Amino acid sequence: MHTAASRHQPVRASLAAFVGTMIEWYDFYIYATASALVFGKLFFPTTNGFYGTLASFGTFAVGFLARPLGGAVFGYIGDRVGRKKSLVITLLMMGTVTILIGLLPTYASIGIWAPIALVALRFIQGIAVGGEWGGAVLMASEHSPDQSRRTFLASFAQLGSPAGLILATLMFKLVSSLDNAVFLDWGWRIPFLMSALLLVVGFAIRLSVQESPDFLDEQQRRASTPAASSEAAPLAEVLRGAPALLMLAIGANVLGIAGFYFTNTFMLVYTTQYLHLERALVLNGLLAVSVMQFFITPLAAYLARLMGNHRFLVAMSALSIISPYAMFSLVDVGSLISVTAGVAIAILFIGAYYAVIAGFVSEAFPTRIRYTGISMAYQVSGALFGGLTPLLGTVLAEKFQGQWWPLALLFSALSLLSMSCVARLGRDRSVTLPRPLRVQEGR
Predict the structure, then answer these.
(1) 247 domain residue, yes or no
(2) 300 in a domain, yes or no?
(3) Helical H runs in 183-335?
(4) For residue 1, pLDDT beyond 60
(5) What angle do CA 292, 271, 324 make, to 5 degrees?
(6) What distance in Å separates the CA atoms of residue 38 and residue 31, rounded to the nearest whole number?
(7) Is residue 443 part of a domain?
(8) pLDDT of residue 226
(9) Distance between CA atoms of 6 and 2, rounded to whole angstroms?
(10) Which residues form the domain of 187?
(11) Which of 18, 171, 174, 259 is the most exposed place for a label (fewest CB within 10 A)?
């Protein structure tokens, strides 16, 4: 018999997934923004802005390299101990590290120890995010009483990404209005320290959600199946039993990750350092685009339910292949309207794709390895493509100054890779669940 509390759990789980991921992505995005605007000057002082920015984006990439480790560690906790416990730990880790970054002395104060400490904290931040995303997606989708609504509910975890970006952009917009010397002295720290308030709110909401019904069913299966105790660790099962699925899932996530950091992190550098646009103008444009993406997310999830997830994702990735040519043509005009419109064209398709890809990929993995499977796919994709995309974009922008076509080709290649992987996953579902896993799967 379902109690009133249990009937409300899908709503609570979706809200907790949204708020939790919003806070964690806020923390992640303020670091990304600071990497573009601050860290190169304060932690990697150099007479050449290019190398300072490159070093700053190097620390940004460190967070992505740490994320697969977080996916493995918290994937194990989520698949064997509980989704909820894993998510509470990641939220506390992320919030604490972000506050410490806001208190960190700069190179001028402690020398080489400043960038070392920044890289160490960034690494821990990456571990936390590596465990957060998969659990948030599953806590929302696995509470769904209707299988057909799982992708829609999973989109609430994806909704946290634009919400976090809106908060991060608003905070940096507020402090960027300060005098430049004040901004570099202490103004940039305010967005990091504000994470303390968000942490309290997110922690309270996350504690109010019950454990995932799918995980509880899996616990019962393991308790009633003698052979279950001898099953391999989830990561070993993913790597040994479903390597084709893992590779395709990694590729399928590229557009949602690398494409997003291309438009929201690299484009901040491109517009301010290479087009010499005002920082406030670019942040205003990105804020408007983030609000647009916030509303795109639930609409895209609804449309995908009508069209079918597979067809919708293929269509969005195909449109993303051609979108950067319009984006750069408009951004190069240099006005607030043209910059906003240009980035909005790319984000329209990336945001729609990102809203649906989590639910699409999670459906492919069986319950007992689902947290580990989708976390590793997402985080390895982030490590290989998310963290390196701003770096590669900066190198191309420096090498081909005044020409944007190499940057557009990079964006198109990322989109084509994801489209190919999604097409294969939808066309041949047998790659998603090899026979040994189907025999063992209890659901």
Answers:
(1) yes
(2) yes
(3) 189-193, 195-207, 213-224, 234-241, 243-252, 254, 260-261, 267-269, 279-307, 309-331
(4) no
(5) 60
(6) 10
(7) no
(8) 66
(9) 6
(10) 8-211+232-428
(11) 174
